[in-house]
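Training component of the fellowship. As part of building independent skills, the fellow (R.M.) carried out the full modelling exercise for a liganded target. The chosen ligand was phosphoenolpyruvate. The inputs are recorded below so that the supervisory panel can assess the work.
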Amino acid sequence: MNSIRRPLIAGNWKLFHGGLSATPLAQAVVAISRELDAVDLVLCPPFTALPLVAIACHNSRVQVGGQNLYPKDQGAFTGEVSAPMLRDVGCKWVIVGHSERRQLFGETDVGVREKTVAALAGGLIPIVCVGETLAEREAGKTLQVVERQVRAFLDVLAGHSVAIAYEPVWAIGTGKNAGPAEAEEVHAAIRSWLGDLADRTRILYGGSVKPDNAAALLGCANVDGALVGGASLDAASFGGIARAAQG
Ligand code: PEP
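Fellow's submitted model of the complex:
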């Protein structure tokens, strides 16, 4: 594996730990990170906790990311947060197009592309999420859907090293996960669509990753890490996944 494709484990805290409880959780992850020198770790707390988490992670190997961004830098956009604002509070990363954003907040492929452009222009590394619903998988449309989602933003990645997270929607927060063979099939397909970017793009798996299934998923040739939801809310579980990535 080349150095750009070092394992990356990113925690998506979703709508949890938006206040003072963010600090001890981030500090516990920082403590675990001291034993893990072969894995990159990113924490994505709610916007309100970003400054606290950035302080807790300062001078450590743990980096910080936003869970979403608005594609304009500033203006009359009440309630939104931009790439420069995320940078200002210490973010290096941002999740774009999470399935909860697509499903609950109406984000489209066009919007995901726009946000990817804004993240890159603002100096953030996007973790762009793709994945099929259960109905799409059952209709045999997994690769067709994921290819459409990837091609919607592929051309804007030229010259950049980003992460793409394959997260089958039916596996997120459900306790079901794609088996290693199912995940590898989609990851290998995504890699094949990337062309010149294939060696410089980390493709993460997401969907009910836990310490006990992480090693098998992370052992797949085209799985370069994980985007972790539920299990990232507990430092020991998140650490267990990170240890599996360290090998
Ligand atoms: C996620 O939110 O990106 C996710 C994969 O959640 P979970 O690990 O809880 O399935």
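The panel noted the following from the submitted structure. The longest strand covers residues 125-130. DSSP finds ten helices and eight strands in the chain.
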